[in-house]
Structure formats: C-alpha cells, structure tokens
C-alpha cells in the first residue's frame, strides 16, 4: 500500500484513467493540494467526486506564496484568509466559528510557505516587498492551522533560514518568551519526537534541502516528503537526507503532474509513479520496498489522521 501525499489532481490529464492506474500500482490514498482559493475549492470537489472505498482522496486548502499571489493582491490578505475559512466551512455554533469538512476530506492547510526564487531583474525594494508579502501570508496560514489543529503542507525554496525562523516563532512551545530559544534551533541527530500536545506540525513537501536543514525541520516536529527529485542524478544532498533521516518521519509523493522521477523525467507525472519514488528510497536505504511502503503509509496516516 502506498500514499501519494502531494498531488495537484486538477492539473492531471486523464484523471479517471490516472486514478485507475494508481490503484493498479498499489496506491490506496492520495492528497490533492490546494495552492490558491480556486484550486482549494477544486481539491475538495475532486476528493468528494473521485474518492472510493479502494482509493481514498483527501484535500488540503491553502495559498501558495506564488500561485496565490494574484488573488491576495486583488482581495487583500485578510479577505483571502476569510475566504479560505469559508471554503473550509463556517460553523457559528463552534467555539472558533469554524469547522473542517464533516466528512473528513480536508486534512491540512497548504500548500503554503516561502519561495524566494525571485526574478533577478527586480529592483531591491520590489524583492523586499515580495518577501514581506510572502511572510505575512505564511504566518496567517500558520495561525489558521493552529486554530483548526491541522498540519501544514509547507513549500520552501531558497528560504530555509526565514521559514525556520517563522515556524520556530509560531510553534506552540517556542512562541513563549520564557523558553530557551536555543533549543528550537539546536541541531542534533537524536530521534525526533512529535508527541507534543497541539504542537504545530506538518510536512515539508518535495524536499530539496541539505542535511543541516533537514535536522532543523525534524527538530521542529515536521515530516519530510520526497518527490521524484530524490531520483535525479544532480540531487546528492536530497539523497543524503533520504539516507540519514528517521524512517518514521518520511513521506513519499509525486507532485503530479510535475517532477516525474527518473527514468521518465520530463514526462507528465501521475500518482502511480509514487511507486518509483518508493522503490528508489528502498534501494537507497538498503531496505525492502514493502518496508518503505508500509512506513510511509503509516506516517501519512498519523500526520493527516487519514
């Protein structure tokens, strides 16, 4: 059994055929990711329409730092977050005024985060304004995840220090001024725990960082998900992380229809190819494929409560 923890099914060609092929490949659960207000609505619709007894589909709702930028600029940050709350369903009888879908389809907030891969021709003040916008958008979604007690699906590109700083500041335990601030930044190879009550948690999707960054992510209580990137010949740092990290914090994904793994790199991706990622990780760690499949499936079930 396999769980594809990150897809964009609204962009997958031949969706029904793709889902059938996923089932044939042993995929039993798929998360389809919202990266804007519109795609968050579509993620819920797809999960409701295509989920079945032998292939469960779940949705996440969030605003990507780049994909959702036009919506935020048009509506404003607070109106966008309010709209995101409406997508998740308002419930005037609950203490927070919110409820997640009663059917359990929405399992996380995101895809959200920081993407500092900015146009080199932009003027410095524009770059600074873009980064400030991204930080504010990310923090708003961190707070929403905490309010709903949902995990985050985190996107990070060229922004490791900034993203760890924000997650540390807004973590349930590290937000207090009386704590030891060094503890949240401590890097070690100890076994990482996620047993804290209501501690902010989530997953760094499609991991691209090095081992130092991975230790910081794990130390904050987050999981790490590997996409087809881990199979690339030019990704030795990602492969090092996959070898060293605790197996009980690992997820697998396709990011379909993007990031097809070797040997089909460059082709359109689909959920069945999560099996290729799993087999590569098994070979990399000297484990059987069945172990990788079982452990990553259990990890996804634990994180997303699916």
From TrEMBL:
It comes from the Bacteria. InterPro entries: Metal_Hydrolase, TatD-like. A divalent metal cation 1 binds at residues 6, 8, 111, 255. A divalent metal cation 2 binds at residues 155, 205. Keywords: Hydrolase, Metal-binding. Pfam families: TatD_DNase. One of its GO terms (molecular function) is hydrolase activity, acting on ester bonds. Transmembrane segments: none annotated. GO terms for cellular component: cytosol. SUPFAM superfamilies: Metallo-dependent hydrolases. Signal peptide: none annotated. CDD domains: TatD_DNAse (cd01310). This is Hydrolase TatD. It comes from Candidatus Curtissbacteria bacterium RIFCSPHIGHO2_12_FULL_41_17.
